[in-house]
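Pasting as-is:
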Amino acid sequence: MTFLPRLIIHGGAWDWEDALDAPKTESLHKALSIGWNALQAGRSALQAVEKAVNWLEDDPLFDAGTGSHLNVNGVVEMDALLIDAESNQFGAVGAVTRVRHPITLARKIMTNTKQHFIVGAGADEMASKLGMRLIPNIALVSESEQRYFLEGRTDGASDTVGAIAIDKDGHLAVACSTGGTPLKPAGRIGDTPIFGAGGYADKAYGGAAATGRGEHAMRLMLSRYVVDAIQAGKTANEAAQDAIQHAETRIPHSMLGTIVIDTQGNIGAAHSTPKLACGWIDTDGNPQVTMRGGIVQKATE
């Protein structure tokens, strides 16, 4: 059976200057193009989400890879999670400091090691063992993040990035990558690499990715909550909205966001933040991007 490929991505949920909306929109369009072209060429959902997130990791507009927020010691520490719903496997890294693409390291860990969550210096060491080139940490520091660090600012302009895809074989994959929060303590790890919090997938129901305030997403196991809502009979978009409403009930001003795809290819997104940078491919194959969340869908989507 051949399935209709689907793709949704996000570039963070928070509040940033309106002047950044246009360049973020342009970058999300490019990430969508990369992921969608992979799916149209018959490549796997895993490859599509990895490559889309690679683009966002390379864009200093986003808090992932190059351009990640600096911790209190002026060091970039990054987290990532990749999930293969078909095999019920995942790979994750935390506080990695010397790789250009943490999401690619997460995939290599998933496919090449018996242990699937590796952090800190061990993650950098594993990257080298798996054939990835190590780079100086300073190479990941953007001019704007260096300036924020020197000014002691904790209002970073962006947040986690993520992608969810279904390929022609109906296989679903979820990818999440982040540099964490500005001026975080050394060693702090948020929700992004936590299976069930930052991302979750069940091949019978769908997949979700979270963004926003990581400690809150962990307390709620937000991504698992979204997929459980689908299992309970809600549509993808209803599940996303329900999860954020639940978050606001439990934690007022939760500052969270989520994107989701169910196994029927329906998509959804919701947020309690002022903005959610979100992009998707509609059922006509056209890219759609919004900086304020909300999935505009036709009746058939």
